[in-house]
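Open question from group meeting: does this chain pack into something compact, or does most of it stay loose? Before anyone orders reagents, we agreed to write out a predicted structure and look at it together. Recording both the input and the output here so the notebook holds the full record.
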Amino acid sequence: MFPRFHLNAIFSVTLILFSIIDILGALPLIIQIRQKTGHIHARRATFVAGGIMIAFLFLGEELLHLFGVDVGSFALAGALIIFLMGLEMTLDRHIFGNASQSADSPAGSAVQSVVPLAFPIIAGAGTMTTLLSLRATYQVQDILVGIVANLFIVWVVLKSAPWLERQIGRAGSDILRKVFGIILIAISIKLVKTYFAFNSL
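Structure tokens returned:
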């Protein structure tokens, strides 16, 4: 028997994930990665992010328990990565990268399309903890459709990165990168404050 899909639930899940992933807000970082590597592997980043999200939907809590990590600590680690990305964007300093792979090489470009793009920008701690919350409220099949819908939006934005970069211009992308870098730092600090406020109760 085929699973029943609920349009209202799918719409709600899609909107929630879209606001959490915030791929449009990540445009300055996407442009920055493209400027470093010369190319973004849109399909690879989308598939990796989708694989992480779907795996975490089914195995997230068990996987964290296996390593003795609670959801709050996982979110805190994600906040640290977001903080470092914000510093990189604001101060124009290179933090993320693979020492064994040049960013200009195809392999280096592929690595940076996965880290930090697929994780933690697309499938970050916020997205993963949201998926665990959605699992308690919505049917799995509705969540899966919402994930696929958001992955399609992500793929379109990543594929459009060169065109978007041309429209914004170099000066515009520099300004946006610094502004969103500060916003990322603020988001990471808010996540840390929320974590400690929750644990102090």
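Observations to bring back to the group:
The first helix runs from residue 7 to 21.
The two ends are 45 Å apart (CA to CA).
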